[in-house]
Amino acid sequence: xxxxxxxxxxxxxxxxxxxxxxxxxxxxxxxxxxxxxxxxxxxxxxxxxxxxxxxxxxxxxxxxxxxxxxxxxxxxxxxxxxxxxxxxxxxxxxxxxxxxxxxxxxxxxxxxxxxxxxxxxxxxxxxxx
Length: 129
Fold this sequence. Notes:
The chain has 129 residues and is α/β, with parallel strands linked by helices. 37% of the residues lie in helices and 21% in strands. The model has no long low-confidence stretch (mean pLDDT 94).
């Protein structure tokens, strides 16, 4: 396990819990991020024990998808997850991420997947496929 991911996961769990304790319902919270922020949003959102408002991941990947599938929260199958990725991404290979998404979807996770003709950026044009 990547110690940086574990440390960040713990910090994000604490942040979300603090919001819940302060009176914000988990279904009012949306996690989202680009690149490493995508990785962390997926990692935390699918392990968090309450259903969130949603999870958005742009141009990122899943850290150790097999381990994640073993550690899913009881509500992970109810989480809504939007992932997008660029077919021209030179930093995080598109085909690797697509395979990870297909693995998670085959396990029953609700992932809406969109491909864009773009490099490792937020903006892009939808692919015609």
